# Entry
Amino acid sequence: MKFHFRGKPIEAKLGDTIAAALYRNGQRIFSRSFKYHRPRGLLCVSGRCPNCLMNVDGVPNVRTCITPVREGMRVKAQNAFPSLETDFLSVTQRFDWLMPVGWYYKTFTHPAMWHAAESTIRKAAGLGEVLPTPRTEYEHAWMHADTAVIGGGWSGMQAALAAADRGEQVVLVDDQTALGGETRYRKRAGEIPAGLIRTIHAAANVKILQSSYCFGLYEGNLLGVLQHSPHPGAAERLVHLRARHTVVAAGAYETPLLFPNNDLCGVMLSTGVQRLLRLYDIPAGKRAVIVGGPERTAEVCSDLREAGIDIIGLLDPAQIVAVIGSGSVRGVRTRSGSLPCDLVVVCGPRIPDAGLVAQAGGKIEWSDAHRAFLPKALPTDVSVVGDAAGETVGNTSVSLPTSKRAFVCLCTDVSSKDLCDGVAEGFDQIETLKRYTTVTMGPCQGRMCQLSAIEVCAHETGRSAGQTGVTTSRPPNPGVTLGVLAGPRHHPIRRTPMHYAHETLGAVWMDMSDWKRPRYYEGSSSAGEKECVLREYRAVRESVGLIDVSTLGKLDVRGHDSGKLLDKVYTHRFSDLRPGRVRYALMCDDGGIVLDDGTISRLGDDRYFVTTTSGNLDFVHQWLDWHLIGTGWDVHIVNVTAGYGAMNLAGPKSRDVLGKLTDCDLSSHAFPYMACREAQVNRIPVVLLRIGFVGETGWEIHCPAEAAEELWQVLMEEGREFGIRPFGVEAQRLLRLEKRHIIVGVDTDALTNPYEADMGWAVKLEKDSFVGKVLLSHAGKEQSRERLIGFVLQGPGVPPDGAAVVVDGRPAGRVTSSRYSPAKMAGVGLAWVQVSKACEGASIEVRIDGKLVQATVTMRPFYDPEGARLRQ
Amino acid sequence: MKRSALFHLHQRAGATFVEYHGWELPAFFASPQQERSQVRESVGLADLSHLAKFDLKVKPEGHCWSLGADHYLVITEPRLDPPPGATDVTSVYTSFRLAGPRTRDVLNKLTSLNVADAALPNRSCAQSSLAHVHTIVLREDMGSIPAFHLLVSREYGESVWEAIVHAGNEFHLCPLGLEAVQLFRD
# Structure
């Protein structure tokens, strides 16, 4: 397999990770550190340290030591200019004395200082570059298990198998590419349990997620799992894994020791050396010095000898004066002399990996016997097994050269000296020390540095590690890409039945919540929005127009007590509505505040057809259901919004168009304004409502959704001789504004009662009781503060929504809707003003582009105030 | 002719249409035999919006789906009569059949609902969010082949169909025409 590193092809063997292939090909520097741009090489080879982060196929901060090579992938270094080997910004380490711990907070407190430095700092800060065009191959998935096991090592496999034997559904999450845990690379830990692995793979009720890590354990045993390359079409998958029981078997991981220059390339953890050797058949060096306590050195020595690596020396960290080398290791200087070598193998303390337990509310406590923090007081339904519980962990104490500079945090270059300075400045609690120095806050989230930081803090403050305690563990750890959290870029879209007819007609779309609605129709013309809207407006006023109103909420309400329920919930009376009639419907809450409006048609004795505004449907449905509870009334409410395509055929010629397609008598005598009929149009069963939101003769036609496209097309066809035009939301808004019809939520707000909105006629206070009656009875009598008025501008311009209304030089209200009215040949609108100004003919001023324009108040519609056209 | 919310999508996918009880339905996309073997081996998706659906407050005679307290759903072939007291909701839903051995793998990418056999046995139902849309999930195996009937509010049909197809890509999910669906019924 081949891939590209810095534009050059690199050969990789089957099973290689990116880092392994690069190491085999001689690459030693893998990254430059965050602050000082120090060269860094492979350290843990297990995805736990920040040293191998690179940019892979445009994605920053990829942990190359655990990312398998894919053919043709493009790998780049990050945080280094011009190259990993020569990085200009590495000069910063010469000036580290200028940048002591907390220098950022101390230096940039003055605003002038910050402004001067900001652009430079922004360029230098951060790690990696965000992909300019987001990738699409992120996925989500959900899984359910009786038992979830985190970790595919010996203990994890045992736990999984035990649960499987009990007949449970098991999901085993393993962050490595194959099961086996440390047996895969630590010869002395035992032979790879091939039999166990075979049994697990054969178990039908165990699902194994390989190359997957668990980054969070949330309430109710919900595990966040990130799965790499779940299939060739996806880069990453976020698995929401819900389990009854979680077994944490994440093992223990090794961490570095503190000595000067402990971060040079060639200083590697012993498990990292073993992984390179056993998983990828790569000897990490030729001549090695081994550093560390006795508990691991024997095993490591034997492994190195077997690989043909010369062992130059075996040292306790306290013996080291410094590791020598610029970039890569050239030797180790001790008190008794120098040892030349190209590899320093660090046998560091092992940390039980129980961060998930702490996230879920478990306690982590220091154990003197293990010299490690162990999980105690486990949350319910979480257990910890194996090395994660400290089974084979037995660290020796390590003396710390606190006066010298050894790197504790590799992510953000925090040294032991920085920590000592922090403590000296008073940040002597581990949580405040963390925030002040940023130790444990980098990409590794404390995996490499937490124990060292605690030990330094404990040493400096004279406390024990147990008294010092650990910092809080929070998900996600390890980090996850924002892309995978966002998931596939699928946003639901609601399309009306006539969607494609609009598309053919050249609709310009607007989004109303998830709905797509035509704002206006561009057609094949090159006309702008204004012209198109005016064209549509004229068609409705002068001949005939057709608009898709399928987004209206529609409820089918049936049963003997339907009228009772509607009387209770709406302000008007509906039990006395005659079948075949329609009434405007206004709904208020207990406080008398306007919630929604629509129409209610009585289609039969026990059958009503209720429409609501598009956005409030679900609310109205629930509101009706809520008020039905406990009444014992016979009412059956079904949301039939999606079942009906709805269109409004409006204009003086609408009767001519509709008449060609139906036997129903459409004359005003037989089918007056505010009447409804069930009829056939073009042999399609429809409900016709003669209502007039736009102020012309017209019918709202509701037909089964599956026939709506056909009906739309037939109406357009039959209307052609009259010059029919489809009209969009924009023209509709203009048409309704000329009639002073309000839109709930646009012209009303969360404090509006019907009287203020000039709709007291829709409230029947004489009804027995209804929602909002008590407060509306008062509101009807009392003088309200504000009123919704209409205004006609005396000068040019159209005010924007929310424009200020000014009277006598003082603010007196605000505009809610306004448009240029072709009927008035002036700007018109609705506005809230103080009651004292709300009288016919009063003079107000409206602020347009910073200028005050004179306007006249009117309480009547701007167009056809008598409503004669509606009734024609 | 009656058209489901997915008509234009089927047309773009190159379906061959047929009339069925007044509906213009896709007869097949590739070939009925090919579609059938895909369902046996992996997973297929069919548009069943033409089936008649009725919403009831009281439990009717015969088979119905119990969606909640006092809420029942009856699904029948288009030619059958509605049960008494029912509200016809045929047009309200876009409905899909997702069938095949990989059905659950596809559903697990779209919904947090547990669709395992133990949690949702055959002939049981649930309501959940699927592809961010409220969905009625009816488990209705076809013989030994796992199958689910999914109902979403009609206007979301195209959007949800596309999400299911996208999620099913890795399993080579294929659209099914009426003929393939009928092959399984016989």
Q: What stands out?
A: The two ends of chain A are 80 Å apart (CA to CA). Chain A is about 25% helix and 30% strand. Chain A has a mean pLDDT of 92. The first strand of chain A starts at residue 2 and ends at 5.
